[in-house]
Inverse folding.
C-alpha cells in the first residue's frame, strides 16, 4: 500500500473538525469497544484520489487496513477501494471524513483526467495545469487530486512563480519592458509569465520579454490568431490559454496550437460517489 502524501498532523487536523469533543452517539450506545470492519467502494467510474489518506486516517485511529487503491487509478463502478478492521469507535471516528475526502478528491481527479484526455484528443496536446483557485485551506489535497488526474499545478503559491497580472501593472511607473527586464535580471532561473486580455497587448508583452503569454478569456478565434501572430516573432513566447477551460472545450483550445491550458474547473467538479459498508465482527469468544 502506498503512503499518504499528506502528513499526520494535517490528517489529524481534518479528523479533528468532526470529532474534536468525541463521538457522542457511539459513546452513548456503549458500542465503542466492539470489533468491526469497514469497506469503501466506488459507486461510479472515477479516477481515484484520497484513498491512501483515508487509510492513514484509519491507521491513526488504531485500525488495520488492507491494500488501498493508489491515486490516479481509473476504476469502474463497484470497485473496492479500501478495507479496514478496528473498533466501532475508531471506525465511526473516521468513516464520514474519509468517505467525503475520497469523494471530493476523486471528483477533482476525474475532472482533471477528462480535461487532459480532451486536450490530447488528436495526439500529444498542450500541458494542462490547474490554477490556485481551490477552496482556501484545501491545497494539500487538491494539488494531489489534480496530479492524480494527470494535470500539473499552474502555481501552488505566490512565492513559486513570476506571474504578472494587470493588477500588478497598474502600480508600475515606467514602461513594462523596463520592469520585465529588471525582473528577469533578478530571477534569471524563472520563466516570466504575463497575463493579457487583448491580442496586441500580448504581442507587445512578448516583444518586451515575456516568456509565457497567458491569454485571459480569449475566444477560440482570438487564441488561434494570437498563436499564429506570436510564431512570427523573433523570439516566440509560449502561449497559455486561461479562463473557462474545461472538458467540453479543451480539445478545441488545444487545436489552436497553444502550449498550455490553464484551468480551475476541476476544483468545482461534482464529487465522486463512494459506498461505505460497516459491519460488526464477532469477538474471539463468539467465534
Amino acid at each position: 500500500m502506498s503512503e499518504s502524501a499528506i502528513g499526520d498532523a494535517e490528517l489529524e487536523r481534518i479528523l479533528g473538525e468532526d470529532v474534536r469533543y468525541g463521538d457522542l452517539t457511539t459513546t452513548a450506545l456503549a458500542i465503542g469497544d466492539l470489533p468491526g470492519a469497514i469497506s469503501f467502494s466506488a459507486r461510479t467510474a472515477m479516477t481515484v484520489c484520497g484513498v491512501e489518506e483515508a487509510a492513514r486516517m484509519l491507521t491513526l485511529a488504531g485500525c488495520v487496513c488492507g491494500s488501498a487503491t493508489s491515486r490516479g487509478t481509473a476504476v469502474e463502478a463497484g470497485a473496492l477501494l479500501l478495507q479496514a478492521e478496528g473498533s466501532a469507535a475508531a471506525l465511526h471516528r473516521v468513516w464520514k471524513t474519509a468517505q467525503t475526502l475520497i469523494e471530493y478528491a476523486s471528483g477533482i481527479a476525474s475532472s482533471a483526467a477528462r480535461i487532459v484526455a480532451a486536450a490530447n484528443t488528436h495526439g500529444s496536446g498542450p500541458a494542462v495545469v490547474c490554477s490556485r483557485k481551490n477552496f482556501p485551506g484545501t491545497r494539500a489535497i487538491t494539488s494531489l487530486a489534480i496530479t492524480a488526474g494527470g494535470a500539473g499545478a499552474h502555481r501552488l503559491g505566490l512565492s513559486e512563480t513570476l506571474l504578472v497580472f494587470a493588477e500588478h501593472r497598474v502600480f508600475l511607473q515606467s514602461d513594462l519592458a523596463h520592469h520585465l527586464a529588471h525582473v528577469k535580471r533578478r530571477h534569471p532561473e524563472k520563466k516570466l509569465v504575463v497575463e493579457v486580455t487583448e491580442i496586441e497587448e500580448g504581442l507587445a508583452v512578448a516583444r518586451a520579454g515575456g516568456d509565457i503569454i497567458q491569454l485571459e478569456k480569449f475566444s477560440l478565434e482570438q487564441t488561434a490568431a494570437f498563436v499564429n501572430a506570436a510564431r512570427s516573432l523573433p523570439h516566440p513566447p509560449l502561449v497559455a490559454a486561461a479562463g473557462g477551460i474545461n472538458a467540453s472545450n479543451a480539445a478545441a483550445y488545444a487545436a489552436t496550437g497553444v502550449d498550455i491550458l490553464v484551468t480551475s474547473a476541476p476544483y468545482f467538479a461534482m464529487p465522486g460517489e463512494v459506498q461505505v459498508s460497516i459491519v460488526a465482527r464477532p469477538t474471539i469468544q463468539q467465534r
